[in-house]
Design goal:
Chain A: InterPro entries: CBASS_pafABC_assoc_protein, PafC-like, PafC_HTH, WCX_dom, WH-like_DNA-bd_sf, WYL_dom. The structure holds two protein chains of two kinds. By secondary structure, chain A is of the alpha+beta class. Chain A contains twelve helices and 14 strands. In chain B, α10 (about 295-305) packs across α11 (about 315-330). The chains are: A alpha+beta, B alpha+beta. Chains A and B meet through α1, α2, α3, α5 and α7 of A and α1, α5, α6, β4 and α7 of B.
């Protein structure tokens, strides 16, 4: 993969500043520090070695000790003035500070005093280092949530303890589940718990605002074949991918978020500004809810039995509403 | 080990040309003119014409400034009236940050918040700079098991941030939520904000002469940034939530008639039936649920179908009915209710 020129430049400058301060460092350690391969680091050193001030005579160039490099140790002998680390650009500083501030207020961080303190001190140090630009972006993450439930889950994730959940699924059914929690994922205004569910005997994602009650147990979490770094949305998509049924929805442009948020198999833009998404249906109740909620922007649904199911549910609701409307409050 | 650096020799990689430009401008005693850069700095000699050199040099200056390298221009003096360039060495450096391993772990996690490709690039660069400042290995324990993620802000973010940072006026075409009408708006942007899954810009609308909130996803096409920097002042206190509050609305309470044992999530949020609650419709429980966003609660209630009915307010009831009526037509209008889009 070809690296962007500006990304490499920042690392080249960074390597010199780092070595100038840290002294001789092993190639391996330098690679770890900058999160790249040792091969990249060696290419970087070769590039630095022939760079310098105009004239480019031997004394004008950045220089390393060639003998120690043969033994895998990077020793900077001439830095040509690049001794200080480069400051953060405005965009970088703004995005980093905004992200820290958003994290600081998430329910998942607020539920734990120690976390709140660490995020707070990191935020204070970076804000001090980046100055006034820090206020341009203001981000809030995570809904209000039940802080008691989140507190239990946060501590259970950190301590590696199994939890017992009372959970409401998309079909509005309540179940008790023993779960080995893996991580809490905050996406926009919702927080999710990713874990191993004993009831389902597999990896599951739970919306925290659908957890009615969470109780930590004394049991340590067991080893499961779970990738801890899995992206929750990739994971939902993978779970859904096992389902055989496919539905196709044609949606008006305001429902664009569906394509962005729901795991879809494919999106096709149509000339009139509407678009078509294909999705696999694991849970018919979930799809019915999605369609009822967004019906004004749904232009067509395939296959016909899905459309019939939703329409029947809507007619039943309208009938019940008309019925109740006459004997409670008058219709506005 | 010295290489051969005759100017005009094989084209240098852009990153290595940029590196040599930075070293030259950091070390120059006063400033370098364009001509000195072209003839002296390794990599520029390869430019086949003056125009090609000018383009290359302008692009490189922009790249370096975007990375945070403070290139300043110096008016010509003495024997030359040509403008010179140098790097402001005081503005170049990152002030000492001294993050503990636990704090760096937090910063590394925060850097993963963004979904936009450009912002993710910015973040990886910021982490490289912090690594250069000597930050030790990140320790993830403090935030183990947490992953925050924010929906992509989209193309409007970049120009709007530039505008807010430099206080430039922006114009853009904007689609009104209720009418769908697209109009050009001229705005002094104050803040970019993300709330509840949506991205907004808060600022002063010049035509309406009032504070306005715009949703980034309704901006149609490009955001144009004005040429004049410092064109307005941003109020000392910008209350994003208050500005959004006008749109989200104050807290209200919905009375909902819930079928037995259904909608435990709604029941869990109930503040209990208040005084003067109408009697429960046949076999249902009436619960009082607080809400702020009419759209959000209408979506939620409609999703339950017949299990949850609205008692009041009437506006919520009609919003839910509008969704249900549209859903009832999805099988081809077999259950036409007589209600049209409202």
């Amino acid at each position: 993969m070809v690296e962007r020129a500006d990304d490499r430049l920042v690392r080249l400058l960074g390597i010199v500043a780092y070595l100038d301060d840290a002294g001789p460092v092993g190639v391996d350690e330098l690679a770890r520090q900058f999160g790249v391969s040792t091969e990249r680091i060696r290419q970087d050193i070769d590039a630095l070695w022939v760079s310098g001030t105009p004239g480019y005579m031997p004394d004008d160039l950045i220089d390393f000790d060639a003998f120690s490099l043969e033994e895998g140790l990077v020793t900077l002998t001439q830095s040509r003035g690049l001794t200080r680390p480069l400051r953060l650009g405005t965009r970088e500083a703004v995005a980093l500070v905004a992200a820290l501030r958003a994290m600081h207020t998430t329910p998942a961080v607020q539920a734990d005093a120690e976390r709140t303190a660490v995020v707070g001190s990191a935020l204070a140090k970076l804000t001090a280092a980046t100055g006034e630009a820090a206020h341009a972006v203001d981000v809030r993450l995570g809904g209000e949530g039940d802080s008691r439930v989140l507190g239990v889950l946060t501590r259970a994730v950190a301590a590696g303890r199994r939890v017992r959940l009372r959970y409401v699924d998309a079909a509005d059914a309540v179940s008790e589940r023993d779960v080995d929690p893996v991580r809490l994922v905050t996406q926009d205004d919702a927080t999710y718990l990713v874990g191993w569910c004993y009831r389902a005997a597999g990896r599951r994602t739970f919306r925290v605002d659908r957890v009615l009650e969470a109780v930590a147990t004394d049991l340590d979490v067991a080893e499961h074949d779970l990738d801890p770094d899995v992206d929750v949305f990739a994971q939902v998509a993978a779970d859904v991918g096992q389902s055989p049924r496919v539905a196709t929805l044609r949606l008006a442009s305001p429902a664009r978020w569906v394509a962005e948020e729901v795991p879809v198999e494919g999106v096709r833009d149509l000339p009139d500004g509407s678009f078509e998404v294909r999705l696999r249906v694991t849970n018919p109740a979930w799809l019915r809810r999605l369609l009822l909620t967004n019906a004004p922007d749904v232009l067509a649904v395939e296959p016909p039995d899905v459309a019939a199911d939703v329409a029947a549910a809507a007619r039943a609701a309208l009938a019940a509403d008309a019925d109740e409307g006459t004997d409670s409050t008058p219709l506005g | 080990m010295a290489g051969d650096h005759a100017a005009g020799e094989p084209p240098t990689r852009p990153d290595e040309r940029l590196l040599n430009l930075v070293i030259a401008l950091v070390n120059t005693s006063a400033a370098m003119t364009k001509q000195q850069v072209r003839s002296g700095v390794h990599g520029y000699g390869a430019a086949p014409s003056t125009e090609a050199f000018e383009r290359m040099f302008e692009r490189d200056k922009d790249t370096l400034r975007a990375l945070g390298v403070p290139i300043v221009t110096v008016e010509g003096s003495g024997h030359s009236d040509e403008v010179g360039y140098r790097i402001d060495n005081d503005a170049y450096a990152l002030p000492p940050v001294d993050l503990t391993p636990a704090e760096l772990g937090v910063v590394a996690l925060a850097a993963q918040l963004w979904s936009d490709k450009t912002l993710r690039t910015d973040m990886s660069r910021a982490m490289t700079k912090l690594a250069a400042a000597g930050a030790a290995d990140a320790a993830g324990d403090a935030v183990a098991g947490l992953t925050p993620r924010l929906r992509a802000a989209g193309d409007a973010y970049g120009p709007l941030l530039e505008a807010v940072s430099e206080r430039r006026v922006v114009t853009f075409r904007y689609r009104a939520a209720n009418t769908g009408e697209v109009r050009t708006r001229t705005v002094e942007p104050w803040r970019i904000a993300a709330r509840g899954g949506g991205w907004y810009v808060v600022g002063h609308d010049r035509e309406r002469e009032a504070t306005r909130v715009f949703r980034l996803s309704r901006i149609d096409g490009r955001v144009r940034v004005g040429a004049e920097a410092g064109a307005y002042t941003i109020p000392d206190r910008v209350d994003v939530d208050a500005a959004l509050g006008a749109r989200v609305g104050a807290e209200r309470t919905a009375l909902l008639a819930v079928a037995p044992e259904r909608a435990p999530v709604l029941r869990a949020r109930a503040v209990g039936p208040g005084p003067g609650v109408p009697r429960a419709p046949r076999g249902r429980d009436v619960v009082a649920v607080p809400f702020r966003s009419m759209t959000a609660i209408a979506d939620e209630v409609a999703g339950y179908g017949a299990a949850v009915l609205v008692v009041e307010p009437a506006e919520l009831r009609s919003e839910v009915r509008r969704r249900l009526a549209a859903a009832a037509r999805l099988d081809g209008g077999a259950g036409e209710t007589g209600e049209r889009h409202g």
